[in-house]
Amino acid sequence: MADPTDPRKDTNVFAVHGADPEVQAYAMAKYSRSALSMKESLKELNEQKAEQFLNTFYFQYGHRSIADLAHVAFAVEKLSLLAAIVLVDEQRWDGQERSTRYQNFKKSGFYVPDFGTDAAARTLFIETAQMLFTEYEILSEGMFRYLEERTPKPADMDQGQYDRTLKARAFDISRYFLPLATNTSLGQIVNARTLETQIARLLSHTHSEVRQLGELLKQAAREPAYNVTHARLAEVLEQVRAVDAGLAEKIAPELLREVRVSPTLVKYANANAYELETRAQLRQAAAELMKGAAIAPASVVELLDDDPLEVELATTLLYAHCHYPYKQLREAVAALTDARRRELIDLGLNKRGKHDELPRPFCAGQKFRFDVLMDIGGFRDMHRHRRCTQIEQGFTALHGYDEPEEIRPSGMKDRYRDVMQRAAAAAAQVAKSAAPEPEQNSHYLLPLAYRKRCLFNMDFAEVVYISELRTTPAGHASYRNVAYQMFETTAKKYPALRQYFRVTDVSEPVDLLKR
C-alpha cells in the first residue's frame, strides 16, 4: 500500500504516442506558459493551433529550443556514400546506415553526377565505377576463400554462422574498392531544430547531389508522411462501413488523416548565406597563406600541443579549407602578426547574421586534439563519435590510399594497386572535364581506401571511450589502429593517465570467428 506521506505519491509519469510531432512540441512547450497537464494540453490542441503558436514563439521570438521537442523519423534511400557522410555530420543525430560489413553492395548501384554536354567524361565515370564494382565482387570472393583457408571452422560452430562471420571479415577488406558514388540507405530520427540546421547546411553544400538532398528533406517534412497504420485502418473502416455507412463517413477523416511531420518548423530552412560566403573567404585565405606549399609528411595520428587560443582559432578555421596537416598550417599561422591572425578570425565572423550560430571551428579550447589521416571507410566509423568536435577536410587523392595487410599474402597485391591507380587516374581526368562541377564529380570515383584528414577535438573521457571501444578485436583493423595510436600518443604525453585506459593491444592476434 502506498505511503500517503510519500512526497512522490502524486508524481505521474507516462509515455505519449500518437501526437503529431509539432503538436507534441507545442504541448511540451506549454509547460513553461500554462498550468495545464500534458493530457489537457493535447486534448485542446490541433494542428492549426500548433502552427499559430510556433509562428509566434519560434520564428518571431527565436525560441528554437521548442523545436528540440519535435522528433521526426526519416528514411533516406538511394543516396551516395559521399552524400551520406555529409548528411550524418550533425552532432545531435541518431540513425543507422547500411553496413559495408554485413551487406554486399554489389547490387546497390551508384550515383552518376551531372556532366552536362561532356559525354566522354560521363562514359569514363560510369565505366570506372562499374570496374570498381566488378573488382569489389572479385575481391569479396577472393578474400572469403583466403580467410576460409586460414581459419578452419570449429566443430561446434554452425556452417551458416561460420560463413556469415568470414563474409563479414571479407567485406571489411573488399569495401576498400567501393567508390564514394556507391548508393546506400539510412534512417534518421532527429529533432526539428537539428533538421532545420541540417537542411540549411545541405542546401549550402558544394555538391549538387547534397543540395538536392536538402530540398528532398525539406519537402518530406512538409508533405504527408508515410503512415504504416493506414492500410490496416482502411480495412477497419470498410468493416465499419458494412455495418454503419454513416458512422464510417464520420470517422474516416480522422482515421485516415494525413500527417505532416514538421511543416512549420522547416519552412524557413534555406541555404545559409553566412556559410557560403565564409567558406569562399576562408578557402581563398588558406590558399594565399600556403601559396602552393607541398603537403608535409605527417603521422596517421598526431596529438597536438596546446596553442594560444587565437592561434588555434585561426588555424582551425583554415584547416577545413585545405589538405595540409594541422601542424604545418599552425606553423604558418603562428608566424603571422597578431593583427593578421585577428583578420583570419574575423573572416569566420564578419558575415554572421542575427540567428547564425558560431561555426564548428569556434568550439576551441578542448584539451585533446588529434589530427587524423585515415582511409575514408574507417573514417565513416570514427565519424559516428559525435561527442567530440570534428573538423573535416575535403575528399582528395593527394594523401594516397591504405592497403589491408591481407592483400599481400593473398596474392592480390598487384591487382589491388592497379585498381587504385586506375580509379585515381579516372578521377583526375573527370576533374578536368567540362562538367558543371568537375572537381566535385571526381570525388565520387575515389574508393574508400583513399585517405581523408580530420581534426578530432575532445575531452579526456572521450579519448578513453574511443580508445577502449574501437580497439576491441571485433572492430575493423583501420579504426583499431587509429584508436590505439590515440591511446599511445596520449599515454606518452601524459604517462600518469595510462592506467585509466582499458584498451586491447592491436598487435595481438585476432580470432576472426569472434564477433
String of helices and strands = HHHEHEHHEHHHHHEHHHEHEHHEHH
Task: Please identify the top-level CATH class of the largest domain.
Answer: Alpha Beta
Cα radius of gyration in angstroms: 26 Å
- What is the third-level CATH name, the topology of the largest domain? Gyrase A, domain 2
Detailed description of the structure:
The protein is an alpha+beta fold and 515 residues long. Helix 1 packs across helix 3 and helix 5 runs antiparallel to helix 16 (413-430). A four-stranded antiparallel beta sheet has the order 4-5-7-6. Strands 1-3-2 form a three-stranded antiparallel beta sheet. The longest helix is centred in the first third of the chain and has 32 residues, at 119-150. It has three domains: 21-69, no CATH class; 73-224 and 402-443, 2-Layer Sandwich (Gyrase A, domain 2), CATH 3.30.1360; 273-401 and 449-500, Gyrase A, domain 2 (2-Layer Sandwich), CATH 3.30.1360. The model has no long low-confidence stretch (mean pLDDT 90). Helices cover 47% and strands 9% of the residues.
